[in-house]
Amino acid sequence: MAAPAHGTAPKITADTASAPDSAQPASLNGVTIRFQQAMQLMRRHDPQAKEDGFHLLLPHAADHIDELIAEFAQERHDHGLRCWLLELIGEARSSQALPVLTEQLHSGDESLRSWAAKGLEQLDTKQARQELWKARANGLID
């Protein structure tokens, strides 16, 4: 198949419709392999591997918002991982993140409150701004 002229969309045919798309990550039971690999790295004891896992997901946070929220809800023991997951949830800038970010804005954990506030600031919707305003008015955040 010849490359399309500059500025035109490629023609989709039966041959190209089923071809793997490099923009779409491979999926296993609805969870992408990239996400699974990143989570495995983030759970290692090696600090560099943890960083590598985080940075593997960072540019794709929006693509994995459902998985990130599910992992955050399930993780109870690793405080650093919870903070990173909440940071990634905020980086997704998705309206799906609003309930999680709002809940953590009222957390007793100052680190989680801070990441929730940052995530709501990045979300920058009317409801996110209202939640931030209420939290500031109640002295939960600066």
From TrEMBL:
It holds the Pfam family HEAT_2. Residues 15-25 have a biased composition (Polar residues). It comes from the Bacteria. Residues 1-25 are annotated as: Disordered. This is HEAT repeat-containing protein.
